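Q: Can I see a sequence and its folded structure?
A: Here is a first one.
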Amino acid sequence: MATKLDLANLARAEALKTWHGAVMGLKPNIQPIVSLFPKWTLKEANGLWCAAFVYYCCVQAGYEIPARPQECSCSLAGCGAWDEWAQKDNRIGWRSAACAPLPGDIVLYDKVFENKQHDHIGIVLEDRGNSILAAEGNLGNVSGVVERPKDKHIRGYISLPDHFVY
C-alpha cells in the first residue's frame, strides 16, 4: 500500500529512467506505461502520455486505482480525467494552486504546451517556495525531472491519501 512519499520517490526514479516515445529515431520504450490502458495503442500514445506516466507511477508505487474510475468520463490516460476524478470523489484531496504542495501530490497544469486547460500533469517531488520540482512524462516526448514556477499554469494539486485503495 502506497504513501505519498513512496510515490514521490518512485516518480523521481521513473522519470530519470528516460522513458520516451518516438524521438531522435529511437523506438519508443513506453509500452509498459501504455499497456495499462488496453484501448490505447503505442502509436496513439506517442506524444500524449504525461497522464499515463502519472498513473503508471501511482500503480508502481502501490496505489490501487482503476485505469478509469467510475467518476470519470474517460481513462486516467487523460489529464482532464484526473481533475474530474478529484473533483467528484471526496476521498481524494483537491487543493488550489495557492496551496503549498507536498511531495507525492499530483500537479495539474493549464496552458503549458497548448492554449488549453488540463494540457499537462506531473508528480510533485519538492516545493521550492516560488517553484516546484516535478517528475513528468512527455516533456518533448521524454520523461524527466523539471523545475516549474508556481504561476498561472498550475491549475491545482491532487492529493491521494496514503494507503488509498479505490
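Q: Show me another, different protein.
A: A second, unrelated one:
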Amino acid sequence: MILQSESDLIKTIEEDTWMMEILQAVEQLNLPDCWVCAGFVRSKVWDLLHDYRERTPLADIDVIYYNAEEVNKQIEKILEQQLVSMMPDEPWSVKNQARMHVLNGVEPYISSKNGIAQFPETPTAIGVRLNNSKVELCAPYGVEELLSCVVKPTPKFKKGKSMHSIYVKRVETKNWEKIWPKLTLRY
C-alpha cells in the first residue's frame, strides 16, 4: 500500500483488524477527548514503509483523554484495568492530559489535542480514535514527516529551545534508526 496522505493513513488503520479492535475497546470507555496515540500509529506506518511483515512490538499503547474534573491518577489505573479485561495481552497506558503538564513541567494543557501537540517529535504527535465508528486523526503537524520516515522536533523541542535536550535524549535512547533504518533523524 502506498502511504501519501492522511486519507491513505486512515484507510491503512481501517484495514488493520488489530488496530480497529484496539480503537473499539478504547471507544467503549466513553472517555472525553480520547485518543490512541504516539507509537500506536507511528510504528504501524514505519513498519509498512520498511516492508516488515510482522508488527514491531510496542512498549505500550498510549491512550490519552482530557477530564479536568477528575485528575486522580488512580482513575487512570482503573481505566487501564478495564482495557486489560477487554484485551489482556496488550500493554495499556492511560493518561489524563489534564494532569500531565505537572509531570512535564509545562503550562496546563487545554485538551488532548493540545497535549498531543506537546509531544517531542512530529511523527509521535499523532492520535487516532473512532468517532461515530469512523477513524479520525489528530495530527497537529500533519502526517508528511511520518509518511516520509522523517523524525524532527515539534516547535517546543526545536534546536535553540530549552526543551531541545529532551528531544535529543529521546531520539538517542529510542534507537529508532536501528529498528527502522530508512528513518532520517533531524536535530
